[in-house]
Amino acid sequence: MATQIPSLPETERLAPACIRILGGNPGKFTLQGTNTYLLGTGPSRILIDTGEGRPSWLATLRRVLSEERASLACALVTHRHHDHTGGIADLLRAWPGTAVHKHRPEPGAGLLDIADGQRFSADGVTLTAVHTPGHTEDHMVFFWEEENALFTGDNVLGHGTSVFEDLGLYVASLERMRGLFSPPEKAGSKEPVAYPGHGAVVSDGPGKIDEYIRHRAQREMQVLQALRGDDGDGDGDGDRDRGKVRDEDGKGNGHSDGWTVMELVRSIYRDVPESLHPAAAGGVVQILQKLQREGKVEAVGSGERWRLAWGSGRSAL
């Protein structure tokens, strides 16, 4: 959810065998637009993702293929969201018979499955598909062996952080993604690069993934601190600062009747524009559900409010 992002050109050659083509759909959550990648050096190329179906993207893809004197061998889709799949229909009308692969495609969609560990190749490109659920259940990333590079889909972005459907799966996938890179000394001095689904190229893929893992742990800690009644400034006076009272058992939930999700969002995301708070709320819900499974928090009343679990006390931190 980055608020300031650099501009990117409509097309850019990122490596001898990789051209990025923007999807023509810039926005609050799509950043500069969806990144689609044309891979290979020969007459037959691989495409990763299809944007959301903007005519400008299709026209640009046609132009680039013409300039490259190449055609499409297949298209690989990272996940089911419309800003990555919306161009499939246009793609198939323009290049009938192109094989389009997606993990667990919907029946009748005419798409081919992608299995975990499946390999795809073109001149200069060998890709290994890796199932990395979290952002969505069907999410796949693709490791480019020759370049020690990872196409991260929406699990890792070029700016800001991503949203997810299941926090536990997401963090596990991030850890798996981090392990796909080889150290430069074992990869022909190739630096471990990440090519995200949105945003600029990440020059240090493992470092960015480490940053994401730490960020998720930090957000989890902030939720616990808020429920505890600690505002995170280190003085231990979160309840007094907000004029709240502690529960009778002294657990320090911040609110005697618990916190709603949006109350937690307003406390934790004070530095984020309010227009992005609804998106942040989804992440907070995921954190609360993870902590609930771990026995650290509990829903109270009708389930709309949350507090530290009985007996967890400060040890929950």
Automatic annotation (TrEMBL):
Protein family per UniProt: Belongs to the metallo-beta-lactamase superfamily. Glyoxalase II family.
Keyword annotations of the record: Hydrolase, Metal-binding, Zinc
Classification via SMART domains: Lactamase_B
Domain of life: Eukaryota
Protein name, as recorded: Metallo-beta-lactamase domain-containing protein
Stretches assigned to the Metallo-beta-lactamase domain: 33-198
Pfam families hit by this protein: Lactamase_B, WHD_BLACT
Cofactor: Zn(2+)
UniProt GO BP: secondary metabolite biosynthetic process
Keyword Hydrolase: yes
Annotated stretches, region: Disordered: 226-257
Alphabetized PANTHER family for the sequence: ENDORIBONUCLEASE LACTB2
